[in-house]
Structures are given as C-alpha cells and as structure tokens.
Amino acid sequence: MTDRTAYIDAACELAGFSLDASARAELQLQFSRLESFATLLDAVALDDRLEAAPEFRP
Amino acid sequence: VTSLPAVQEALDRIAADAGALNAFSEVLGQRALATARQARPGPLAGVPFAVKNLFDLRGITTRAGSLILRDDPPAAADARAVTLLEGAGAVCVGATTMDEFAYGFTTENVHEGPARNPHDRTRIAGGSSGGSAAAVGAGFVPLSLGSDTNGSMRVPAALCGVYSIKPTYGAVSKEGMFPFVDSLDSVGAFASDLSLLASAYGVLAEVPAPRTGGALGTLRIAVADGYFARGLHADARAAVERVALALGAQRRIDVVNAERARAAAYVITACEGGTLHRERLRTRAHDFDPATRERLMAGAIAPAAWYVRAQRFRRLFAHTMRELFTQCDVLLAPATPCSATPIGATTVDIDGVATPIRPNLGSFAQPLSLVGLPVLTVPVIEDGQLPLGVQLVAAPGNEAALFAAAGALAGVCAV
Predict the structure, then answer these.
(1) Which of A33, B16, B147, B354 has its CA at a distance of 20 to 30 angstroms from the CA of residue B221?
(2) Are B407 and B384 in contact (CB under 8 A)?
(3) Confidence band (pLDDT; 50, 70, 90) for B241?
(4) A11-49 exposure pattern, b = at least 16 Cβ within 10 A, e = fewer
(5) DSSP string spanning B286-331?
(6) ∠B214-B220-B225 over CA atoms, to 5°?
(7) What is the pLDDT of residue A54?
(8) Is residue B13 exposed (0-12), middle (13-18) or buried (19+ Cβ within 10 Å)?
(9) CA triplet B193, B126, B268: central angle to 5 degrees?
(10) For B280-284, which contacts have Cβ atoms below 8 Å and span 24 or more sequence positions?
(11) Which residues pair with B58 in a beta bridge?
(12) In the structure, what pLDDT confidence band is assigned to residue B411 with cuts at 50, 70 and 90?
C-alpha cells in the first residue's frame, strides 16, 4: 500500500464515504489526476505575501 | 401585440422532434402559452427561450441533471435570470438537459441520456449546458440560458455552432441557480444571432445592449499563442486563423502560465464541487452519475494545501491577464481542441496522442474563466464540416469590445 492509497482510504473513512472495489479504483485514478494538476502549481514561485483569492472579483 | 405565434411555432418544432435530440428535460407548454398571451413589450418581445435545468423555474423541480434532486419540491419562484428575460418580453418554453451537477463537457448524462448534436445526432452536443446549446443549434428556440464554470457554455456553443456569451464573473445574478463552483460559476446565454445575444446580455447584466455593428476602429486584436496553439486539431487551428484574418489580427501573444491556470481551475473545481456535495456523496453515492461521483469525491478529500495554493496562483494569474490586456483589447483562442466527438467515445486522437475527451474538451476554456474574464464564442462553420468555435476574450467588464469584434465577423460566423 502506498502512502497515497493510505491517505485516500483514511480520508474516505473520515468523510464517511463507502466504496466498492470499482469505485475505489476510480477514486484513486481521479485523485492521482487531481494531484498531477496540483503538482503543476508547485513549480510556480509564489510570493509569501500573495494572498489567496477568497472569492474572485475581477 | 402577442408572442403567441412565435412561441407556438417553437413548441411545435420541439414536439415534432419528439425528444430525439434530447435537448429538453421538460417542456413547459402551458406556462409558455399563458405567458405568450400577455403582451409584453421589451427588447426580447416574443422571443421563446430555453433554460438549463439548474435555474429555478416556478412550479418544477430544479434537478441540475441529477437523480438526487428529483424528489425535491418544485421551485417557488423563477431564477433572477429567467425573471429578467421574461421581463424583457421573452417567453420560457422549457428546461434543458445537462451534465449532472454541471460537472462535464459532454452532456452524456446517465440519468437523462445524451444531448445530441444538431449537426450530427450521433455526436455529442458538448457540455455541461449541452441541451441549451443543442436547442438553439437545432432551431427549436433562438435563445437559451446556460451557466459556465470551466467552459460549460463555450464548449457546447462551439460544438453546436451557435453564439454564446459568458459575461465577466459576477456580472449576472446567480440568484435561483443551483451552484457548482461558486467562485467560478457565471450565468450566460446562447443565441443563433449576434444581435439577439447582445440584447440578451444587456437584459441579463442590466446594462444597455452593446453595439454589434460598425467598424473595428481602434480595437487591438491578438491571437493567443503558446499553450493555446498546441494540442488541437488542424481544423480548430484553422478556425482561429480564419477569424484572425477577418479581424486583421497579426499579433501573437503567449499567455504565460496558461497551462498552470488550467491546473488551478481543475483543482478549485474539484475541491469546491466536492465540498458542496460532500454530504450527498456520503449518503447517496450510488445515486450519482458514475462519471461525476469519484471526481467529486477526489475533490472532497484533497489536501487543503492544494486548494489554497491554487487560489494564490489565481491571484497571480489575474495580474498576468490584467497586464496582457494593456497590450490588446481582444484575444482570440480556440474554444475546443476538436469538433464534436461520437457519443460514447472516450478518447480523441490529437497530434497522434489518444487524448481523453471528458477532461480535455475544456482545456482552452478553463484558464480564462479562472480569472473571471468575459468570453464571447463565435461559431465557425465550413461547408460540409462540423462546427467549431473561437473564443473572443477581453479584460473584465469589457464585453463591449467582444460584441464589437464579433460584429465585424459577419459572413465568417454564419450560423
């Protein structure tokens, strides 16, 4: 079991999500896809003073 | 003055199709005829319109394409956007099909069946506002309401060959709309005709309708390069070039960090959407569309650090785009990487790579809505080919530039 799988299982238990084997496999795929997008953002240098956009206003 | 003939004709066209296009989840004949019998002056007098079924319509349940909401009580009042359109003389004729909870780009809904493309009924209409775009593309109604979070109007507008406007974030009231991703959701319209789209935008945003005629004047128009010039079919690239040529746009501008903007939109969407549906995922997981459920679950359990970083990047990208629009007034970009794909297909070949359709149809739309930019999608239809669309993008609040540029495309964007 990888750390990622352990994280997903623990988070699902905490959230109260129940999954069969098929749904669990699909969730792992979707979580990995989400992680790959999140990782893309890690490469950007963000100034510590750059505030989060709490709700975007143009 | 009566709207009755136009509304009756729209109802007849819808009835003649007998649901084959699957654009409507509910047709409201009695309501439409009752409304049409009342003389209503206004810029949209007598215009029949359809409504994506995540906007409240008095007397029917707002299902948002789901099974889960089907047992909810009927809406007590119309959504603000519906009230505004009817106040301007338009007449609602029904609710349209969509991806479940607006989370998709194809409108292949397991509960309601797929919305079909009016140009080739074996193909998708795009999504998530697929029914609304198909209803206009098929000529059932000249106008419809949709919502756009990551491209949910721009993608189906392109694939169905109709105009759409996704206004600046916050420009149109979301009151009475079932949410998806609150910090991204926008209300907009599809139309078969640019001047009708301009009138509808004016009514929805409660501003004077923008002009659609006349010369381009001093408008500076550029083509989005870099990320927006990669990973698309040759015909989608040709559509952009055709519009660029018609508008005399020669300048190319690389939109720095566009790929990361798409990534941030993806993360924010999953996290906000997953959080919205967290309790339903816990108690009614089996009632979700399988194409939606695990994506929402992934967002609901994602580390908070991913979401916060995406939001901080969003602030940075807003600065980037603000700077870009000091160099041009309107930016051109493809609306989709390809034309409508067959219903049921899971991948499409792009540059020799089997690319998953569902997550990637909106890849050129997502970076732009991340920072709330207004986008007008114009249809480009070559003889004998499926439609494509081109996004006209402007700085927040500058919808006037979009309508002016689109107005200069007469003859290029015939629907």
Answers:
(1) B147
(2) no
(3) very high
(4) bbeebebebeeebbebbbebbebbbebbebbeeeeeeee
(5) GGS-HHHHHHHHHHHTS-HHHHHHHHHHHHHHHHHHHHHTTT-SEE
(6) 130
(7) 56
(8) middle
(9) 110
(10) B280/B68, B281/A15, B281/A17, B282/A15, B282/A16, B282/A17, B284/B68
(11) B75
(12) low
| Per-residue pLDDT at B204 | 98
Read off the pTM: 0.97
* Beta-carbon separation of A12 and B297 below 8 A: yes
Q: Does residue B6 sit in helix, strand or coil?
A: helix
Tell me if residue B128 is catalytic. yes
pLDDT at B211 exceeding the cut of 70: yes
Do B63 and B25 touch, CB atoms closer than 8 A? yes
| ipTM of predicted assembly, 2 dp | 0.93
- Of B395, B414, B406, whose CA–CA distance to B167 is shortest? B395
pLDDT band at A49 (very low <50, low <70, confident <90, very high): confident
Mean pLDDT is lowest, of B208-217, B346-355, B382-391, for: B208-217
Look at residues B30, B26, B69, B52 and name the one whose alpha carbon lies nearest to residue B104.
Answer: B52
Nearest Cβ partner for B298 among A34, A40, A46 = A34
Q: Which residue in this structure is represented by tokens 């319209």?
A: B189
Return the CA Rg of chain B.
20
User: pLDDT band at residue B215, thresholds of 50, 70 and 90?
Assistant: confident
Which among B25, B66, B128, B144 is annotated as catalytic? B128
Distance of CA B136 to the CA centre of its chain: 12
pLDDT digits 0-9 by tens, B367-393: 999 999 999 999 999 888 999 999 999
B147 is catalytic: no
| 8 Å CB contact between B286 and B66 | no
Locate B272 and state its tokens: 């906000």
Contact B316 A46 (CB under 8 A): yes
Beta bridge partners of B377: B164, B391
